[in-house]
Amino acid sequence: MKTRNILIGMLLLVTFAMQSQDRFLTRTGHIKFYSEAPMENIEANNHKVLSIVDLSKGQVAVDLLIKAFEFEKKLMQEHFNENYMESEKFPKSTFKGTFTVPEALKSMTDGSYELDVKGDLTIHGVTKPIETKSTLTLKGGKLSGSLLFNVNVKEFDIKIPNVVVKNIAETVEVTANFDYEVYK
Amino acid sequence: MRKTLLLTTLLLLSIFSIKAQDDLLDILNNEQAPETNYALATFKGARLINGHTIVTRKAKELEFIISHRFGRINTGIDEFFGLDGANVRFSLEYGITNDLTGGIGRNSFEKVYDGFLKYALLKQSTGKVNMPISVTAFSSVAIRTLDDPTFQADDFNSKVSYTHQLLLARKFSEKFSFQFAPTYVHRNKVLGNQENDIIALGIGGRMKLNTRLALNAEYYYRLTSEIDPTYKDSIGIGLEIETGGHVFHLNLANSRSMVERGFITETDGNFFKGDIHFGFNISRVF
């Protein structure tokens, strides 16, 4: 009887520990995209990106609102939302990926870990598999992550008319930075 | 023993519930804070045809608009369907803040200088803040510098007119926006059979044809007891083409003037008899 209680107690504790330590979340992640074209360079920033990492399973997810991207020129922001991303129709962009968790990271050893992340990127209602390198850094119980990848605009069915072809790059560089906190 | 069983069940359940929240994207979806989702681009331009829309320029944006209104189409080949006679309006409009825009313009017809202020009071939105319509207040002053021979004494004061509008608009769908514009125009000096103060109700809409093209229409109904039958209600339809920082309007309207006093209270063409002026607006935002 007592043994059973202790066992259950331990199980409970383990579940608790699993939940409280392996998942990390941020609501203020930063994603920037940069388009370099002959006529102009365009940069936009989103500081309200949600992301979560599960270190026990080697999973990561990112979720953001397209309308939260901020441009220096507001008219450009309007065009981005209305003409290109159609953000009324497709308000969100998401990423869901997996990676192999290094043993040292599993045992929560401080350090910087380079990971190969594979997953599905959804932009403008189109989902494409992508592979990218990502860095996760663990320091004093805090986890931060960064990744960089290129998005080919055409692949996501985003049309760029000929008149602005010199203003918008075909391939847009996306960088992401996340400072995670333990998710309970 | 019973207690243990209960505990075990509870434990199982709790593990289960964790399992249910296993999809990371679902977790993120639940973590998303409520946002205010403002209606985008109810109208693309600050003008519908001749009249203003609820659109204001964002802070520090400068817009330059060049507009032309040609003569009447029904003047035929002699006047090259009106293209021989053109009047021009240039205007500069600047976003003082995101909600307040100021502008100055000059219309060659009657040599009118005008200045206006426009303030976005409400913005249509859903989500955290739910607002069914957008409302912008508009006020302008216009000064005619061409002498009017019908006035005996045409001093400075008699050349001035004022317009106040409340622009109410709603984007009903991705494709359709509608605007209602109660308008008050005061003309300092008019002829005996005309009214100094005119109230008009403007209606207008924008129908998106595709991401670049839209159809605009505008009508100003005058609530007036003016005896002078010269003046008609202003009617206009137009095609809107949008490319990057430019907006082009190709219009057909029965009004010659591009200033509020002119097209709302002094439109002299009969649209249905072919007194139609072809015109265009070119807008560039810097």
Describe this structure in words.
The complex is a heterodimer of chains A (184) and B (286). The radius of gyration of chain A is 20 Å and the shape is elongated. With 184 residues, chain A is of the alpha+beta class. An eight-stranded antiparallel beta barrel of chain A has the order 1-2-3-5-6-7-8-9. Chain A has helices spanning 2-22, 74-84, 103-106, and strands at residues 23-36, 41-54, 59-65, 70-71, 92-98, 111-123, 126-139, 142-152, 171-182. Chain A starts with a helix and ends with a strand. With 286 residues, chain B is mainly beta. Chain B folds into two domains: 1-32; 38-285, Beta Barrel (Porin). In chain B, the strands form two sheets. Chain B has a twelve-stranded antiparallel barrel with strand order 2-3-4-5-7-8-9-10-11-12-13-14. Chain B has a two-stranded antiparallel ribbon with strand order 1-6. The termini of chain B are far apart. The interface between A and B is large, with 42 and 32 residues.
The strand count of chain A comes to 9
Determine and state the CATH class of chain A: Mainly Beta
Residue share in helix of chain B: 10-25%
CATH superfamily of the largest domain in chain B: monomeric porin ompg
| Run of helices and strands of chain B | HHEEEEEEEEEEEEEHE
Tally of structural domains of chain A: 1
Q: Give me the secondary-structure category of chain A.
A: alpha+beta
Structural class of chain B: mainly beta
| Biggest pleated-sheet summary of chain B | 12 strands, antiparallel, barrel
Strand content of chain A: over 45%
Overall shape of chain B: elongated
